[in-house]
Amino acid sequence: MIRWDELTRNADLIEAKHILFLMDACYGGLAIMRALKPGSMRFLKDMLVRRSRQVLTAGKADEVVADRGGPLPNHSVFTGHLLEALDGKAADPTGILTANGVVAYVYKNVASDPGSQQTPHFGYLAGDGDLIFSDALLTELTDKKKNQDPLIPEEDVLAAVPGILTPDEGEALMTTAERAKEFLSEERWKIKLHDLVSQKIREVLSATAEDYFSVRGIWSSEEFLDRLHRYESITTELLQIQTLLGVWSEPYHETILTLAPKRLAGRLKIESGLTAWLSLRYYPLLLLLYCGGIAAVASNRYTNLRELMLTTTPDPRDQRQRGPLIRSVAGQMNELTDAFKTLPGHERQYTPRSEYLLKTLQPLLDDLLFLGADYESNFDRFEVLYALEHAHLYAREGFGRVWGPVGRFGWKRDAFTLVTAEAEQEGASWAPVKAGLFDGSIDRFKELASQYGDSLNLLGWY
What we know:
Layout: H1 4-11, E1 18-26, E2 41-43, H2 44-49, E3 52-59, H3 77-89, H4 99-112, E4 121-127, H5 136-145, E5 158-160, H6 176-184, H7 190-207, H8 221-234, H9 236-248, H10 254-257, H11 259-267, H12 275-280, H13 283-298, H14 302-310, E6 312-314, E7 322-324, H15 325-334, H16 337-340, H17 352-369, H18 375-396, H19 414-426, H20 431-434, H21 442-459
Parallel strand pairs: 1-3
Antiparallel strand pairs: 2-5, 3-4, 6-7
Helix pairs in contact: 3-4, 6-7, 6-9, 7-11, 9-13, 9-17, 11-13, 13-14, 13-15, 13-17, 13-18, 19-21
């Protein structure tokens, strides 16, 4: 008999990025994370990049496992349905066969098999990627890329992940996101919401102190990627709350909506060190801006978008001065343009930072907001509004030109065109203008869009 923890611990010695444990036996008390909810979507190639350790067992603790009676002779119920799943029955209509698909198929069919009195146990031990068995679609996408501009990212597929709707097992503790949802539901909970946000901010401030992220040292692309991942992991719960605030924040939540960026920015001081590590301290602020901003755009809460983008924080160049959050974040991220080009798979892209964020944030935002296939269009729309509002502020400061961070819309021009055409059609009643962006002036927006569009033409990316 092999202890479960011994088996999984020894498997850590295997260099494989994806491992799926299949056990035709019952195990209880496994420390697993639940699989994705039904209807969840993920970028197919991104799932290949993300590490995963998944598990599927024949039953839960103290259940009787049927040794026969399944769909295939001389096999147990569990193994019979597993073999059929791997033979293609678990593939989606496009032919994609994944570990999540296999798990969903086996769970459904074993639990409903007349000869079965068992319910498979499943989930993630670590990571959030997926093991992909069939690659026909990936090969097709790679072949299409051969005739494209090499600086445009390879096409990816936002695919539905087969999920399992399981009975509520009555978890004793609410997650941070669930608590935030409850506190957002009524005005009377705003003090508790403030306390929750404050607690998570303090945790992030503690975990991102200079003791753990020194601004001195030697640059390396490996260290840069490691710091990105550490910042992302540390801020996960705070990003979940900021996402929910972007959608559900009401006027009486205004101070809570902007509390995280204010406190994180307020801790950052002007000091000596490696430029890349100094600028990267603003990465958590960029994540907050994108999560809250995309959520606000997806739910048409443009007042929340304005409050988040324009909340005042210390100027990184002169901390006696204060300015809009997007000015500070855009300036510091501009210092890291070449750094993002060192990330694996992003070396030859027009907008590596945007491409990286597109894939990195999708699981979190889709799990919370169920954006599905609309995720990419909302991401691009946010980047257009972010760039143009920044351009408005930049020009107003007397620089003599408009400039804003160019996102994926720089080469994927239809995203920029859709926003400008919509504003042209709706005029002064256009929602972002009514919310106060661009000083609440449709004429100012049109002027900015024209000048910014001219600068995009000069890039020659499309």
